[in-house]
Design a protein that fits this description.
FAD/NAD(P)-binding domain; 21% helix; elongated
């Protein structure tokens, strides 16, 4: 991994390439753990941080994805923001070069560029982010008008994050049954069960939701869409026809010249998220080789990196490895569901599903620092000890504790009514 590449009598220069979930979580964590021991530069061409997990609500008049000014956040967190994109890295000289030709020297570089979203098939409505909300809204309008009655929601074989497709299917079903319409909805996925990454208990709970919403499910199905309206399910070569098809994109890494990556552009990292084969460079988020591509996972990788960098900068912090815990908030159009699992396994039954929050604040992105920061009214990061609350699921009495409020110790549970 190499040692610190520091100037004499200077703050440690940290360059963060990417102002998404992972990059912002890292900055917040560093400000908490290392305070003024680090000098942070953020490279990000966009002017706003967009809360993309909420984009699935827009087609159903649920509001747009939230936007937060990166310039404002940079001022609040004492970060130099350069509206530019990392293009290449000269690791030997500790220099990052941007697409605009800027050369930025660093002591440590953290790459949080995320992943590119590519349609799996042409002529298929692919939901990537908020930019596709209007197209899905048009589909919903066609359903309401009776023009479209047979819809497939398809997870393509390959690297992707499947939860948004379940949300689209459930919210479409909710709209149909609220309006007393007739339609046939089918969700097709290569997963062995609905949202199987969350474990057996959560998968069964999601399956029950789909059944109650009258959404048919085809699991362990590797789909192809050879032409508009036709889906071929492999390995049994079964053909199905639909009036409309909604699919998820495939995810690909964003290769950076000068940094090693695999054939799909993903960066391989070690247990502390240090880039393998490049000294003093770390990476977090969808652009790494970790198979689960989700915002909460990106924040946990960023938190692990922050402990290493804070220790390097002289803070009294023990570096911690990345140990993933998967948390997902499933929007249904009715009552949301909170899902939790330990993807490492080997620790007994870790799969949980609940209608009450399993973490706090109960947002889509359960970042230790980013979630309370975005939920708060001030620019200061919340006390890390008060960010998360695990709600036990085995105690029926605790299940009725539906609200958590802040106090001097972090958060406490209070019964509604």
């Amino acid at each position: 991994m190499g040692g610190p590449h520091l100037r004499d009598s200077a703050l440690m220069r940290v360059v963060v390439a990417g102002g998404g979930v992972g990059g912002l979580e890292l900055i917040l964590a560093l400000r908490d753990l290392a305070a003024d021991r680090v000098e942070i530069t953020l490279l990000e061409p966009q002017t706003d941080f967009v809360y993309r997990p909420l984009a699935v609500r827009a087609p159903f008049a649920g509001g747009d994805a939230g936007r937060h000014s990166l310039d404002r956040m940079a001022r609040e967190l004492d970060v130099e923001l350069r509206h530019d994109l990392l293009d290449r890295v000269d690791a030997a000289d500790h220099r990052a070069v941007t697409g605009g030709g800027q050369q930025v020297e660093y002591d440590t570089l953290v790459v949080t560029l995320g992943a590119a979203r590519q349609p799996a098939w042409p002529r298929v409505l692919t939901f990537r982010d908020e930019s596709d909300s209007e197209a899905v809204h048009g589909l919903v309008q066609d359903v309401e008008a009776g023009y479209t009655r047979r819809i497939a929601f398809v997870v393509p074989p390959g690297i992707t994050w499947t939860l948004p497709l379940y949300e689209l299917a459930l919210m479409t079903a909710q709209r149909i049954w609220e309006s007393s319409l007739e339609a046939s909805l089918t969700l097709i996925t290569p997963e062995p069960g609905p949202l199987a990454v969350f474990g057996d208990r959560a998968s069964r709970a999601v399956g029950d939701l789909l059944a109650a919403a009258k959404v048919s499910v085809e699991t362990s199905a590797y789909a192809d869409v050879p032409r508009g309206g036709e889906v071929v399910l492999r390995p049994d070569e079964r053909h199905m026809t639909f009036e409309r098809i909604v699919a998820l994109p495939l995810l690909r890494g964003r290769p950076v010249d000068g940094l090693p990556s695999d054939e799909h552009g993903f960066i391989h990292v070690d247990e502390h998220c240090a880039v393998i084969g490049a000294d003093d460079v770390w990476a977090a988020g969808d652009g790494t080789h970790f198979p689960i591509k989700q915002g909460g996972i990106a924040t946990q990788q960023a938190d692990a990196i922050a402990t290493v960098l804070a220790a390097r900068a002289g803070a009294d912090v023990d570096p911690q490895p990345f140990e993933p815990i998967l948390r997902g908030k499933l929007l249904t159009g009715d009552k949301d569901r909170f899902l939790r699992a330990d993807p490492r396994g080997g620790h007994g039954e870790t799969s949980e599903a609940s209608a009450v929050p399993l973490w706090w604040p109960p947002g889509k992105i359960a970042g230790k620092y980013l979630a309370p920061y975005l939920a708060g009214s001030t620019g200061a990061p919340a006390d890390a000890d008060g960010v998360e609350v695990e709600v036990p699921l085995n105690d029926a009495e605790v299940r009725r504790l539906l609200t958590l409020v802040p106090d001097e110790h972090g958060f406490r549970a209070e019964r509604l009514g």
